[in-house]
Fold:
Amino acid sequence: MLASIACNLDADILSAAFPLLEEGQVEALEWSFDTLFWAEQVPSWFTELLTTYSNHNRLVGHGMFFSLLSGKWTLEQQQWLRQLHQLAAQFRFDHITEHFGFFTGQNFHYGAPLHVPYCEATLRIGQDRLRRIYEACQCPVGLENLAFSYSLEEVKQHGAFLEKLIKPVNGFLILDLHNVYCQLHNFSVAFEELVMLYPTDRVREIHISGGSWEGSVSAPGGRVRRDTHDEAVPEEVFQLLDATLPRCPNVKYVVLEQLGNGLKTEPSKIQFRQDFLRMQALVAKHRDHTSRPLTNTFLPLHPLPPSSIIEDEELYKQQLQLSHILETASSSDEAQRLLHASTLAKTAWKIEQWEPHMLQTAVDIAQKWKK
Structure:
């Protein structure tokens, strides 16, 4: 197991992480590679940093903008794969990951990742897209669990659906423990109950991070937990890490994430380094207590024959409709009214089961990131 950080070309992140990097404390880097796809120039020193970890097979890539489960194949997705292929020739990625869900917004490459219905259409699309990511990078491919859900039923089905998505490429999971923490609070579910619903033998990477609270009269305790990545790691997430590591026999990377906008002050940067050292100590504790070799390479077990791109026009239209409602509704009540009058009613989306406080959260997320 390697104590790692999410390190992008961001002055505040790099400033916070620099003492740890200088001291050789950071055993691996996770890089959100597609955040630089449109950069005119990448500084040579940042390329050298990535190359150093790449040469030691300790660089992993984390995609942000592919919009894996969009119903329609786009030119942006094709370009994303081309650029990933080029990067995979330049750097040796130990694995590549993406987020579950689709992005709100007209072209689904801006906005915020949100849930999709657990149905055959989204399963086939997700499996097809993961296969294409593997073909571009030729290394293990994984998915991250999502923090956001509309209902407790979705929360309980998420792990099993993720396992189905990654099965054809023998993929793996990033288990984001702050995302789990959001689910535990927002749906009043116990950790022991929830963790049993995830294929923990397929966890190759674990994330820890912080987030924020938003008031909500209908939510448990009167507030919703949001995965905003702008605060220090809560005590509860460290406890989840300690409890989860023994359950994940194939975990290789444990990654601390925080956005640069939460690292503007010197106290916040000091706290970031303290969080890393605490995470590192937990990694060392469990590494010392387990000597089991990793049992899965997470590479495809069989050759992947060529196939046609899979799309679903009905799903695409529903995603457009949902995005428009979330981005324009003046309140969750209006959003609910519009949803029940839409083509999403009485479908696999199961909007009739959506919790009011999570619908309001979806409206807030979509309108915050609307472009």
Notes: The longest helix spans residues 266-289.
